[in-house]
Design brief:
Elements: E1 7-13, H1 21-32, E2 36-42, H2 48-55, E3 61-64, E4 78-79, H3 81-86, E5 91-95, E6 98-102, H4 104-112, E7 123-127, H5 131-142, E8 147-152, H6 155-161, E9 170-174, E10 186-189, H7 206-209, E11 217-220, H8 227-234, E12 238-240, H9 243-258, H10 264-273
Parallel strand pairs: 1-2, 1-3, 4-6, 7-8, 7-10, 8-9, 10-11, 11-12
Antiparallel strand pairs: 3-5, 5-6
Helix pairs in contact: 1-9, 1-10, 4-5, 4-9, 9-10
């Protein structure tokens, strides 16, 4: 790597006001002594193709968030096996060999679950079916989870968007007032409901959360204390927000871009910047 050249990285998405990526990534580069900068690049959904073509000529790498994790695929020259299995990429590296795509959401999610005992024995419910959800479903299957339920309001869209999974492990459910989670050990929200302009909303009403067993864990990929997390805590349930997943997937992105190892010391630096 040419240390004299400033490397340029950033995050693309349609709404980035809530993002903490700038803080944690720039703190990481400073700690690692890497001559690099990181910034946000907002692109509207209607302008994605024009915007990404221009941007890819100016940067060395990108993180990709809602709603572009699937749209970015057609601009990749190569992708790792995980991207092929998941059907979504959240990290892009521009190299002499072309534009390479990775999925570091998978890595960040798995690392964040290490505190949950006997995960493979639990039934898991997932709200949403976007790019992040696809990485989570593949991760859950690889972790040995025997059954997971996908809750959504548009079942047909979910079926069309699923990654390649063992169909015996997946059940798509309607999310409505009759939803009952009495057998669920882990509930995950992968939708953006709870952040930004949706910060006062929740993807699942407290009346439904009340059907969870007391030993259940509620995991919101959003990294602030959302209404979902607050409702779950009010009910005495275990909760996890998305901070650790965010940092660990960011560390993995940096490794793809610069070969810097994702150490626990680096995690602490990024967590402090968070």
């Amino acid at each position: 790597m040419n240390q004299n050249k400033e490397l340029k990285f950033g995050l693309i998405g349609s709404s980035l006001l809530h993002s903490r990526s700038i803080k944690i990534q720039n703190a990481a580069f400073q700690y690692l002594g890497i001559n690099a900068s990181y910034e946000n690049f907002e692109i509207s959904l209607d302008n994605f193709d024009r915007g990404i073509i221009t941007l890819l000529q100016k940067v060395d790498g990108l993180n990709v968030t809602i709603p572009f994790k699937e749209k970015i695929l057609k601009y990749l020259n190569r992708a790792d096996a995980l991207v092929g299995k998941i059907g979504a990429a959240n990290t892009v590296h521009l190299t002499e060999m072309g534009i390479i795509g990775y999925n570091t959401d998978y890595y960040g999610f798995i690392e964040s679950l290490k505190k949950i005992d006997k995960l493979h024995e639990k039934k898991v419910a997932l709200i949403g079916a976007g790019g992040a959800a696809k990485a989570i479903l593949v991760a859950l299957e690889d972790l040995g989870v025997e059954k997971f339920y996908i809750y959504a309001r548009n079942q047909l869209k979910v079926e069309e968007n699923l990654p390649r999974l063992d169909s015996n492990k997946v059940e798509i459910m309607m999310l409505d007032d009759t939803t009952n989670l009495q057998d669920i050990g882990l509930l995950i929200n992968s939708t953006p409901v709870g952040q930004g302009r949706l910060s006062e909303e929740t993807p699942m009403d407290i009346e439904i959360l009340q059907t969870l067993p007391q030993i259940a864990t509620v995991y919101d990929l959003i990294y602030s204390d959302t209404r979902l997390i607050k409702d779950a805590q009010e009910l005495g349930l275990n909760t996890i927000n998305g901070k650790e997943m965010l940092i660990r997937q960011a560390m993995k992105s940096i490794q793809h871009w610069t070969c810097a190892e994702p150490t626990e010391e680096l995690y602490k630096v990024m967590e402090a910047a968070f």
